[in-house]
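Deliverable D2.4 — example input (structure tokens):
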């Protein structure tokens, strides 16, 4: 199994640098041809959403589609896949950024009743309590 860094997935998703995109396209083709899987950890998922939003102007709907596609890709082994799904549900409903939602979902899975925050945007997120 090969792990993917954020910059590799950004090149694959955006195809904005021809030379790097060709390299990652070859890597993905090799992984598929060999029946392998690629690992994407939750930190990379958070970074992807931040980079796509801040540097590429992706809106929330586009980010949701990217994450849904990643969840549906059989050759991607996403760390904490079910927690990512729960975080994506909260993100889709509009309760914080994806990284906020993932923090809340991970804390809930760790046994926390909720996560204390000062972020008023998380007031309707079931994983958080605004102080």
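Example output (designed residues):
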């Amino acid at each position: 199994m090969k792990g993917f860094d954020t910059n590799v997935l950004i090149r694959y998703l955006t195809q904005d640098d021809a030379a790097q995109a060709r390299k990652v396209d070859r890597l993905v083709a090799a992984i598929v041809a060999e029946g392998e899987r690629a690992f994407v950890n939750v930190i990379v998922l958070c970074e992807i959403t931040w980079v796509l939003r801040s540097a590429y102007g992706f809106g929330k709907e586009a980010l949701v589609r990217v994450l849904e596609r990643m969840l549906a890709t059989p050759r991607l082994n996403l760390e904490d896949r079910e927690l990512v799904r729960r975080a994506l549900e909260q993100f889709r409903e509009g309760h914080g950024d994806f990284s906020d939602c993932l923090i809340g979902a991970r804390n809930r899975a760790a046994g926390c009743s909720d996560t204390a925050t000062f972020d008023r945007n998380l007031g309707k997120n079931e994983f958080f309590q605004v102080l």
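The beta strands are 2-3, 38-40, 76-78, 115-117, 128-130.
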